[in-house]
Amino acid sequence: MLLAFMPAKARATDAAQHYTQHCATCHGADRLGGMGPALLPENLARLRKAEALQVVREGRPATQMLPFGQTMTAAEITALVEWIYSPVVPAPRWTEADIRASRIQHVDPATLADRPVFDADPLNLFLVVEAGDHHVSVLDGDRLEPIHRFPSRHALHGGPKFAQGGRYVFFGSRDGWVTKYDLWNLKVVAEVRAGINTRNVAVSPDGKHVAVANYLPHTLVLLDGDLNLLKSIAATDRDGVKSSRVSAVYEATPRQSFIAALKDVPEVWEISYTRAVDDIPIGFIHDFKQGEGEFIPGYLNPRRTQLDDVLDDFFFTQDYSELMGASREGRGQVVNLDVRKKVADLPLAGMPHLGSGITWDWQGRRVMASTNLKAAEVTVIDLATWEVLRRIPTRGPGFFLRSHEASRYAFVDSMMSPENKHVLQVIDKESLEVVREIAGEPGRTLAHVEFTRDGRYALASLWEDDGAVVVYDARTLEEVKRLPMRKPVGKYNVWNKVMREEGTSH
């Protein structure tokens, strides 16, 4: 019988049976994941159905994903893929008890050496996330060679976050796993599953507090540095009525706090991870100075800033007193975190990717620049007046913009453009013009630049399963070498991240 003429209920029943027979062992009986990732619409958002069909049919090289093209018919595979892209009803739950029960201690911290086990500069290492086979490579940024490679959880997202001067790094996966990795000892220390569908993690510089932003369930989860649960905060509006996904969470070192955005409620939260903070008023206050009224502790509880519109993406000023945010519709706002209100509108078009913003000094003023996921431009904004100074035309909508304080250039990709995703453009930060194009092979993606600690070299990703990290001389802009990689989706230099280098995202 053709799939199109099979009753929907019968197709779903057959698909569920095939899932139980072929998939549940690795992906969990409830589709929440196991050895393999969770198979829920929220977790599969970036995997097109055509790609999913191919994976089920042909398997995935260098993983435990087997091919089922000889075991199931084409119609059965199509029905199975349609089923895993359908929501689970009722929505799955992930409780505090589930979080605690999921924690895994891989090594005893007492057995770890207190100095690096390699001879490379620990502050000039790169972590390269290879999505092709779910691994992370460690590169020596001086020799520009790999020194280690280890398996990761599936679909790492939001970038690794470093703590304790770069010794420890924390990863978050799409299906909720948080991994603590000792970069000096090249070992996974501990893991915990903080959610079902996770956006990203943030970590305090001392590594004692970890925040996890979840789409599912609607929670902001707070962990200690050993990945033990501190608390899970339900993401709801001030009245506790409307529930929301958490768009992202960021760490604000000067404020000793985490900043979180809610995707479905127009609020920004600030959660202090220091106990030396004032209590938070939550109701009627008779005398604020005397503490007469309704208060909750300021430590690990959200201070809410009410906004006119939701924010999906953030960029912070250097002192973290203000943030620039934008919705998916391009409505931009500047929020002062001290007075807790919007202080300016941003004239942004398209879908700005503020999380990829960079800053530098230009003609006596501090500016920031951002890519745009819909408009073919890089937008340059004056951080004092919030005015747009320049809209630099690009070959197409881009995702990543990167530079370094030691470099006159900023690199931007055009990876959202089907025709020009193989082109990197080089912007002169003084003239605010594209001065060079670096073209790869048409049809293949070249994106996500990260500089070495000293800004001497720029590393780009040939974003393919048979891809590479491509090293460029940041002065001559000529290619230096290529390091073969399995879909290297991101590269992260320890020094640039720990020191909050102006040319990279934080």
From TrEMBL:
Q: Tell me yes or no: is Zinc among this UniProt entry's keywords.
A: no
Q: Name one GO molecular function term.
A: heme binding
Supply the alphabetized keyword list: Heme, Iron, Metal-binding
* Organism domain of life: Bacteria
Q: Where is the signal peptide?
A: none
Q: Which residues form the Cytochrome c domain?
A: 10-88
Q: Which PROSITE patterns does this UniProt record tie to the protein? A: CYTC
Q: What InterPro entries does the database record attribute to this sequence?
A: Cyt_c-like_dom (IPR009056), Cyt_c-like_dom_sf (IPR036909), Cyt_cd1_C_sf (IPR003143), Haem_d1_sf (IPR011048), Host-pathogen_enzymatic-act (IPR051200)
Q: Fetch the PANTHER family from UniProt.
A: DIHYDRO-HEME D1 DEHYDROGENASE, PROTEIN NIRF
Q: State the protein's name.
A: Cytochrome C oxidase Cbb3
Which organism is the protein's source? Answer: Pseudothauera rhizosphaerae
Q: What is the lineage of its organism?
A: Bacteria, Pseudomonadati, Pseudomonadota, Betaproteobacteria, Rhodocyclales
